[in-house]
Amino acid sequence: MSEQPIHTGYLAWHFAQAMATRLERELRTVELNLAQYNALQHAERQPGISSADAARHAGITAQSMGSAVASLTDRGLLTRSPHPTNRRILCLHSTPEGSRLLEQAREVVRQVNEEALAVLEPPEQTAVHRLLHRLVAHLNPDALPPTAGPTETPDP
Predict the structure, then answer these.
(1) Is 100 within 8 Å of 30 (Cβ atoms)?
(2) Is 145 helix (H, G, I), strand (E, B) or coil?
(3) Could you give the CA distance from residue 148 to residue 146 in angstroms, rounded to a whole number?
């Protein structure tokens, strides 16, 4: 019986799962989970974004984003305001406290990324980043910030 090849998607899924687990664990040190981090990140990046759009950009369910937004709103880290033309949509805005916490969380994310990629040499890290950026731009361009080029490092 011949050995089956390990598919790229399988490896990417396992890498993503390992990163998500590490990010969840480390973000707890600043009292956030990954969905909450993503909600803050998208509200800061695109003030007025809807919860549904933030969920789509983050690659999570609307329900998960809704829970994250509710928790952050209760903590005074996000505000929700009515959309100017569609009363059913609420627009997300980071508060000053939310922006401060997001800066702390970004440092946590940077450290997790640095530790995860430490096994690679700097040119390999750059190559992996560029290749992943191209793949995400092809498969889910909404996940990338509007101005993120392949040399920028968008957070998860």
Answers:
(1) no
(2) coil
(3) 6
- Under 8 Å between Cβ of 95 and 76: yes
Whether the pLDDT of residue 29 is over 70: the answer is yes
The number of residues making up the chain comes to 156
Quick one: pLDDT at residue 128? 93
Can you tell me which residue has the tokens 């937004």? 69
3-state secondary structure of 93: strand
Averaged pLDDT, 126-144: 90
Cβ(116)–Cβ(22) under 8 Å?
yes
Distance of CA 85 to the CA centre of its chain: 28
Report the predicted TM-score, pTM, of the whole model to 2 decimal places.
0.85
Q: How many CB atoms lie within 10 A of CB 58?
A: 21
**Got the DSSP string for 44-72?**
HHSTTEEHHHHHHHHTS-HHHHHHHHHHH
* Nearest Cα to Cα of residue 34 among 22, 43, 46: 22
Residue 57, amino acid: H
| Dist. CA 37–CA 109, nearest whole Å | 10
Token pair in block for residue 50 = 């809807």
